[in-house]
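Example 3.2
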Amino acid sequence: MTLSREDLAFRYPTNDLLRDSTAVVFRPVLPADREHLIGFARALEEEDLLFLREDITSPAVVDGWLEDVEKGETFTVIAEVGDRIVGYGSLHTEPARWTRHVGEIRLNVHPDYRGTGLGGLLAGEIRAVAPAFGVRTLSAQMPVDQLTARTVFERLGFRYQAILPGWVMDRDGRDLDLLIMAREI
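Structure, written as C-alpha cells:
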C-alpha cells in the first residue's frame, strides 16, 4: 500500500527496538525540535561534520532545513531515545520537472548509536514515505572514502551510479570524489 502525505500523520509516532533492545521512537521533525537538532549536531564528531553537505551546527542552517520541511520540499524523521534525538533520516526532493521522481536520502546517527541498526531503521522509514512525495528512486551521495556509509547503503540495496572526481570539498579545502548511489523503490 502506498502512503499519501495525509497518511503520514497517522503513521507517526512509531516505535521499534534497536539490536540491543533499546526502544526508539520515530516521528516527523517539528519546528520545536530546533534546539535539540542543533544539540544533536554539536554532539557529532568532527569527522562526521566534515562530510555533511550543510553545517547543521549552525542555527541558520537548521532554520533553513525546518523551512524546507514546512514547504514540503524535505521530510525528516527523527529517532528519539527518551527525550534525546539519536538520529535522523531526511528525504530531499527536487521540484525540477526532470528529476521530480528522484529523492535524496540523508541519514545521520549519533556516535553512541552506531552499529545498533538505527541507520537501517531510519532508511526504512524514508523508503516507506518516499512514494507519498512522488519519489520512485532514492539516491544517496557521499565522499568515496566514507566506507561505513557505503556499506550501509549497499546493504539497503543501493548500487553505484557514478563517481565524480573532485566534486566535493571538505572543511579543510581538500577535493574529494563524490559517490552517487541509488535504488528503485
